[in-house]
Amino acid sequence: MAINFESALGLHAQALDVRVERTKILAANIANAETPGYQARDIDFKSELAAFESGMDVSRNYDMMFRIPAQLAADGNTVEIGQEQARFAQNSMDFETSLTFLNMKISGLRSAIKGE
């Protein structure tokens, strides 16, 4: 009997993909904090996972959102560096959590394959 790894790993593998993409977006926001006219972007993690769970083909075409700043900058940049850094740190911790869950799933599969 074949093991379908996609269904066995399920949501955890997709969560890692979304976290990686969000890390790239948040890093770009931080890198462009001083770029005039740069618009801070993000993706909604919960809605992306909900789309995956509902069976939609998300295939890394994430819906980008533009962030509305609390205070407008004179140069049109919408990056609020402190908030971006906090989001980046939270996303990093969430990535570690998702990776831990995925490792536990893989360990369980490995035990099942070995018959332990």
UniProtKB/TrEMBL annotation:
Flagellar basal body rod protein N-terminal domain ranges (all copies): 21-39
Record InterPro entries: Flag_bb_rod_N (IPR001444), Flagellar_basal_body_rod_CS (IPR019776), FlgB (IPR006300)
Family: Belongs to the flagella basal body rod proteins family.
Major site of localization recorded for this protein: other
Signal peptide region: none
Protein task: Structural component of flagellum, the bacterial motility apparatus. Part of the rod structure of flagellar basal body.
GO biological process: bacterial-type flagellum-dependent cell motility
Domain of life: Bacteria
Gene Ontology cellular-component annotations: bacterial-type flagellum basal body, rod
UniProt keywords, alphabetically: Bacterial flagellum, Cell projection, Cilium, Flagellum
Description of how the protein assembles with itself and partners: The basal body constitutes a major portion of the flagellar organelle and consists of a number of rings mounted on a central rod.
Name of the molecule in the record: Flagellar basal body rod protein FlgB
The gene coding this protein: flgB
Protein's cellular compartments: Bacterial flagellum basal body
Organism for this UniProt entry: Ferrimonas lipolytica
Keyword Glycosyltransferase: no
